[in-house]
Write a structure and sequence with these properties.
Helices cover 25% and strands 26% of the residues. By secondary structure, it is an alpha+beta fold. Among the domains are: 24-50 and 437-568, Neutral Protease Domain 2 (Neutral Protease, domain 2, Orthogonal Bundle); 571-736, no CATH class. A seven-stranded mixed β-sheet has the order 4-7-2-1-13-17-15. The chain has a six-stranded mixed β-sheet with strand order 16-19-20-21-23-22. Strands 5-6-3-10 form a four-stranded antiparallel β-sheet, with no helix packed on it. A hairpin with a 4-residue loop joins strand 27 and strand 28 (677-682). Helix 10 (444-461) packs across helix 12. The radius of gyration is 32 Å and the shape is elongated. Pfam families: Peptidase_M1. InterPro entries: Peptidase_M1_aminopeptidases, Peptidase_M1_dom, Peptidase_M4/M1_CTD_sf.
Amino acid sequence: MKKYLIWIAFCLPFVAMAQDDYKRRFEQLGTTLPTPNSYRTAAGAPGENYWQQKADYTIKVKLDEANNKITGSETVTYYNQSPHPLEYLWLQLDQNMRAKGSDSELVGTATFFNDTIPAKFLEQYIANGGNSYDFDGGFKIEYVKDASGKPMDYLIQKTMMKIRLPEPLKPGENISFSTAWSYNVNDRMKGGGRSGFEYFEEDGNSLYTIAQFYPRMAVYNDVEGWQNKQFLGSGEFALTFGDYDVEITVPDDHIVAATGMIQNAKEVLTKEQNNRYEKALKSTEQTFIVTQEEAVANEKEKSDAYETWKFKAENVRDFGFATSRKFIWDGQMVELETTKPFAQSFYPKEGNPLWEKESTKAVKNTLVLYSERTFDYPYPQATSVHAASIGMEYPMICFNFGRPDADGTYSVRTQLGMTYVIVHEIGHNYFPMIVNSDERQWAWMDEGLNSFLESNVMWKYYPDLPYTDNSPQAITGYMKSSKDAQRPIMTNPEQVLRLGPNAYTKPAAALNLLRNTVMGPELFDEAFKTYAQRWKFKHPTPADFFRTMEDASAVDLDWFWNGWFYTTDHVDIAIDEVKYFRISTEEQSKEKKSKAPKGDLGKSDEEEKKTDFSEGPSFITIDKTPDFWYGEYRSKVDDEAIKANYQDKHFYEVTLTNEGGLVMPIIVKFDYKDGTSETKQIPAEIWRKNEMKTRKLFILDKEVEKVTFDPENELADTQISNNVFPKVEESTKVDEFKKKGK
């Protein structure tokens, strides 16, 4: 009787575990995510009563190049499409983070000083320690008036402005008000920044990348009410969709790139340039609208006259522009399935020859792949602007680094950096410019999803560039680092310790792993596209993403979200032991019984673990099934047929230990003695009964020489040296697991 109990124990998985080790990795997220309602469904879709606000802008802005100053005015029409009366409105004043005494300045932590420090970094280090360099930043608000011109009551609270309404704005109503302001444009070389200007000493010109330049409506929604968290620098923006009519006045020798489409090209371009522009809009070939020769000639003298460029943009959440007399301009039309957007690039001669060769091509490649995975790019154009040491995005326009050396030569590293930053920033048109998540609260929802698709563009279109970012292998160093230096992905960006790996690389690596290993590309792509199409031009939350991915795929992924997004656990799954068994022959069974002492039931579980296959297989005796095992059944199995069926099989019991805490699928490769190999994958649910240790029995046709966990290094396993059986020397283990990029 006891021998059969031993056999049952052999077949069943481990169920005993220490209570302290139980971390509910397979618990459903239903108790964590917000309760579904008529605004957002349990399926992750907008509900029947979903609503969102709208804000339209008419803006006039002027650049004072001599003083590096922006002066502007705007009329905002705000539509209350919520079911709530609003007693006040909140607007974002992002430039106020550069004001003297701002929270960004005060909460900056001290930076370590070396005994020698370059002068350029001194002011930046001081600023990071809570003291700004000598710059008069922040908005100077001239007025806030209602539609009749009457002053309105307002309060400036750091980087937010509250307009107190004389009476509540009722559901279905709208209100128009106007503001006027000015601010000094920051020198990015001295103080950094998401926007500002870059000065070129050799020719005395500047290149302006201008954003967050006007008071912007904050989001009011069903999740938080007003999203009026202060802007400290890391948490980006939550913004409302609307239509923009913008006039930008600059020196008349400047070329302007902006959100939207230019409305008066004939007035601000030469006749030849306008002809080229009209041709480029319809051509799939790269066309130069402003040539390098024209740009070089243009930058030699500065005009004192001004002219106004007019732009319109519909259904966008923000507006940005760039202006300089140094710009070269090229573009081409991109043919998608249902739309034909214009891909274009603006760059100074300092960007060539790299930029004319690669920039617009990278814009095109991004639009093509992102459209395949989500929806056809709905805006009329996408613009890449070159500026030093920056990567920043706004609707239809982004500012990107990647500059050759002074003699025009460039390294593969420079080309790689320039290419992937353009792909990344252009990709932001989808996340969050269209799928409009709250960057102030959830940086990973735009940066992580976008970095995931960025990596897919790079791997498809640039296989010869040494791109390894955002793969599971790229995040292992961070994931196995001290937990004191980490925060879960589901952390506000202002509290994240290392924003790059936390909001970009880790969620991107997780999604690549989810697509390529857990779900498979076809199923993942269908679910991901469902999410993008459900939430384009809307305001999704993390719960909407998590729920949609499961709803559209019929895959329970709560274990995945739990581990990757809510904890700092890492992947370290070790092959603890492999036991080898065969079915004994009749002669072997007799010999085994004659030699076994009375009461010997085999070695205990505390026996020394095997480290290789040198002892050969242990043999299992198959006896005739006793009648009592049939219970009430009146039929019986063919014992001899069963034995014969498995007589030539090789049984391998693989024991795996979860050292890192993050459960993952089990991928095991068997290298056979005849030189062939076979890989088997088991879903992550194998850990559901015991999240720290599991056993799996594999029945194979051949004898195994080596067993390898995660043979293609695709699971972000941080300790690959414990992934092999037989156990081998450390140096040999590392050599066998060379990282394989994606």
